[in-house]
């Protein structure tokens, strides 16, 4: 339970193997991810020595005098929240060059520096690993029967029953994938998430953007963003939603202000957008290029919207988008563990939309539609087949992910997979 005084058992993460691969190949590995996703705990499974810049009061002082003072120690050496002392980046780069051996340093960060030093000096020395909050599989809440790797290889999942109900998924959405909340109840989760959002709104966004921001406007922007979760909404559409909800003489953020908020939230990895897919198609269809809007964890959207599982059941339309955000979160983690990337597909005229595409570097791809219940599966399968007919390369599989209880393959070859049966 959250708040227990007992040491927490480390639950294996998909990032563990990915970190091993990167340490084997490169001199340093940068682990990035939203605050609270478990970066430090994962890094500590591999690090032999460490410096925790957010906890050691003298670390930033030593780094300001000579960042090299923080680099001496057994390797791999963890430099946690390195962005608090940005000069560390060049010191690590030089040390990697001087030592000429892989696996020297692990850096973690929950915000990217404003000048993005990585872009200029990291090539050939640093590998990057993006971590997210925990998936259902990592929380050990499910036993997978269908894998993203298998689907990409053309392996059909076996028919299976899923023990999770719709209310189970709604509970997972409300609590989220935060390591500190594994096993927590909804009351503990509400307290955690309310405090988490308060810190982002009242403090972190000021620090990252470099200026004092109006907390009421930040919260209004985030609330409007959460209303558009799992949708390819433009910034103008989010701002309109924020304007439409103003009351008591309050105002919504102007466009230039909203752009500052969005950039800061990206740098903190609070928002986690999925980019549009641009395949080789057989027609001249014009495609939407904007991202699908997601937050770092589905629980953040639920908390911003004040949607408990009970309220979700009373508003199945919103529950459907929140369920999709849960699937998108887990699917992206599974895809990246398989060396693939996740996209969305939408034609500009709105005639065809497919929720998610998983594509490997070799061009193998999955088409994925998300439906909360059974009633829309036929329509989802039709959309997947229409997309397959437009794309030059044949899909490895077409999949409908649901909150239903049965996993099976339809007569038209489309796999119906409950989210609780999906794994890496």
UniProtKB/TrEMBL annotation:
Domain called AAA: residue spans: 28-138
Domain DUF4143: 204-372
Origin superkingdom: Bacteria
One Pfam family hit: AAA_14
Protein name: DUF4143 domain-containing protein
Lineage, top ranks: Bacteria, Bacillati, Actinomycetota, Actinomycetes, Mycobacteriales
């Amino acid at each position: 339970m959250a708040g227990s005084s007992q040491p927490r058992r480390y639950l294996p993460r998909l990032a563990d193997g990915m970190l091993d691969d990167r340490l084997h190949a490169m001199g340093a590995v940068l682990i990035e991810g939203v605050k609270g996703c478990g970066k430090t705990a994962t890094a500590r499974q591999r690090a032999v020595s460490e410096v925790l810049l957010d906890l050691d009061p003298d670390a930033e002082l030593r780094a300001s005098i000579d960042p090299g003072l923080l680099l001496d120690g057994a390797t791999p050496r963890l430099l946690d929240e390195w962005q608090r002392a940005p000069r560390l980046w060049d010191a690590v780069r030089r040390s990697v060059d001087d030592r000429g051996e892989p696996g020297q340093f692990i850096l973690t960060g929950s915000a990217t520096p404003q000048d993005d030093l990585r872009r200029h000096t990291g090539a050939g020395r640093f590998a990057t690993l993006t971590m997210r909050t925990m998936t259902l599989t990592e929380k050990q809440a499910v036993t997978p029967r269908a894998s993203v790797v298998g689907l990409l290889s053309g392996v059909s999942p076996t028919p299976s029953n899923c023990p999770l109900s719709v209310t189970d998924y709604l509970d997972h959405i409300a609590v989220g994938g935060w390591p500190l909340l594994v096993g927590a109840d909804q009351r503990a989760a509400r307290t955690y998430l309310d405090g988490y959002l308060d810190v982002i709104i009242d403090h972190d966004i000021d620090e990252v953007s470099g200026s004092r921001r109006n907390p009421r406007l930040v919260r209004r922007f985030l609330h409007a963003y959460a209303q558009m979760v799992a949708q390819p909404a433009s910034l103008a559409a989010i701002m309109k939603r924020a304007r439409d909800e103003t009351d008591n003489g309050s105002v919504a953020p102007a466009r230039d202000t909203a752009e500052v908020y969005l950039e800061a939230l990206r740098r903190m990895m609070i928002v986690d957008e999925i980019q549009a897919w641009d395949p080789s198609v057989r027609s001249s269809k014009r495609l939407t290029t904007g991202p699908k809007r997601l937050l770092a964890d589905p629980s953040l959207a639920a908390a911003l919207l004040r949607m408990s599982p009970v309220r979700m059941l009373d508003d199945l339309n919103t529950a459907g988008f929140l369920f999709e955000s849960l699937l998108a979160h887990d699917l992206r983690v599974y895809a990246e563990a398989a060396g693939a990337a996740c996209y969305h597909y939408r034609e500009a005229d709105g005639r065809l939309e497919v929720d998610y595409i998983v594509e490997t570097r070799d061009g193998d791809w999955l088409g994925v539609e998300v439906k909360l219940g059974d009633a829309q599966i036929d329509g989802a399968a039709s959309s997947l087949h229409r997309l397959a007919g437009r794309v030059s390369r044949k899909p490895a599989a077409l999949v409908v992910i649901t909150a239903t209880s049965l996993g099976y393959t339809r007569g038209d070859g489309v796999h119906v997979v409950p989210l609780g049966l999906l794994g890496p």
